[in-house]
Design goal:
- There is one protein chain.
- It contains 10 helices and 22 strands.
- By secondary structure, it is an alpha/beta fold.
- The chain is globular and about 60 Å long.
Length: 439
């Protein structure tokens, strides 16, 4: 059977996939992926595009419902691509998160001695997000993308965002109407800290070589007025180019700072920040809890603006922070005059610390991007380091890197699962790897 756009069938949902979609099967065994359904439910779906992994389908109706189903708290659920699991009760939701972790580790042949979690951030706690805005001939919409689509939900509410960010959406809709022309769009990186807000506008049209780095006066004036009217600390404009460090200061009204363990850091516009304060606090506590009496010198790899750097320094460890993004390195250095922390700029993806460089440290802390730290982990494997604390936002890359560490004599002593991305399939991990003996 070759499904077409108007093929309607009844299927039974067998399980939830890694993205939170329900998975059923056609008669020939081909997988069918359906959003907003649960295992055990009998549903009618409209079959859509077939891919290598299976067939995408749209939910048309229910023949039966799961006892695990609960009413979703958001009117956009099922359309908005931001959340996949609002319809799942608490117990089943927690079990799904943990099964994603243990399944990936089992496939990699890695078994933690102990595992805790998931520790779940509450609703209205997300302090960092990226929305999109688009203007057509009739109106302007601001919101998250629809599921697997470039279309944008015209966001009326969002139960995951901090109220300060959620409340800005109507004002953004008005302000951008006077900036974008029909057919134009941009992304909006939003960040909140202590009630202050940092916004970075990223237009979709890529800057051409030789373009002058300035904005038309009317755009500058409208964004400045928007910042003043809504008490926004910083509004920046980042031209769509290959240079991620290129940011134009449009309306920097007052300092925007983040408190990292008592140290006030001024991050670069649109910098990485852990998604929730609750999640950051738990991650930092888990890192510190891994250290023992013999831990004195620590190297913090992929240090960012100092999420874990300053927590470790405050606990009296001697810390060397390594980060490749120049503005983040500058933020680190500017925040710590007189601090014993040392800082190094280095692209760890392409130039990892060598095993001999690592040998001088009692512990390695690393928090790489979603793709993991394959090259750096190979060097850790060859080093004499006895303790590695690995913070990860990807179960898949974490499992791959964990398998490499296991080859080097490490075992996963403790794994902490942190859920900062409420109602999504994503999790954050803190893995404590200890070496059995010198390698």
């Amino acid at each position: 059977m070759v499904p077409g756009m108007k093929d309607f069938i009844d299927i039974t949902i067998e399980t939830l996939g890694a993205r939170g979609d329900g998975i059923g099967r056609l008669e020939g065994g081909q997988k069918v992926f359906v959003p907003a359904v649960l295992p055990g439910e009998r549903v009618t779906v409209e079959l859509g595009e077939a891919g290598q992994d299976g067939v995408r389908a749209r939910l048309h109706g229910f023949q039966s419902s799961s006892p695990d189903r609960v009413p979703p708290p958001c009117i956009h659920f099922g359309i908005c691509g931001g959340c996949a699991l609002q319809h799942l009760n608490d117990e089943s939701y927690r079990r799904f998160k943990m099964e994603q972790v243990t399944g990936a580790l089992n496939r990699a042949g890695v078994t933690p001695k102990s595992i805790e979690g998931p520790f779940i951030s509450p609703p209205h706690a997300r302090r960092r997000a990226v929305m999109a805005a688009y203007r057509d001939e009739e109106k302007l919409v601001v919101g998250f993308n629809e599921q697997r689509s470039i279309k944008i939900v015209d966001q009326q509410m969002c139960p995951i965002l901090k109220p300060r960010l959620e409340g800005l959406v109507p004002a953004l809709r008005v302000a951008l109407m006077g900036i974008l022309q029909a057919g134009q769009g941009l992304d909006i990186a939003m960040m909140e800290s202590g009630g202050d807000v940092d916004l970075v506008m990223r237009p979709w049209v890529k800057k051409k070589k030789g373009d002058v780095d300035h904005l038309p006066r009317h755009i500058m004036e409208r964004l400045a007025a928007f910042a003043e009217e809504n008490d926004i600390a910083r509004v920046s404009w980042q031209p769509s180019s290959d240079n991620e460090e290129e940011v134009l200061q449009v309306a920097w009204r007052k300092p925007f700072t983040i408190d990292f363990s008592g140290v006030r850091v001024t991050p670069p516009a649109g910098a990485f920040l852990q998604a929730t304060q609750e999640g950051e606090d738990l991650l930092a506590a888990s890192v510190l809890a891994a250290f023992g009496k013999k831990t004195k010198k620590v190297v913090d790899l992929f240090a960012g603006c100092g999420t874990f750097t300053f927590a470790m320094a405050r606990a009296k460890y001697k810390v060397h922070a390594v980060e490749g993004f120049a503005p983040a390195v500058e933020a680190l250095r500017s925040a710590m005059p007189g601090s014993p922390v040392t800082v190094e700029r280095r692209d760890l993806t392409h130039e990892p610390l060598l095993h001999k460089e690592l040998d001088q440290y009692d512990a390695v802390v690393l928090d790489p991007p979603r793709v993991g730290a394959a090259e750096q982990v190979k060097m850790i494997k060859r080093s004499q380091v006895m303790l590695v604390v690995y913070v990860s936002c990807s179960v898949t890359s974490f499992a791959k890197d964990a398998a490499v560490l296991a080859e080097g004599g490490f075992y996963l002593d403790k794994l902490t699962v942190v859920d900062q991305f409420l109602w999504s399939p994503h999790v954050e991990l803190v893995g404590v790897f200890r070496r059995k003996s010198k390698y």
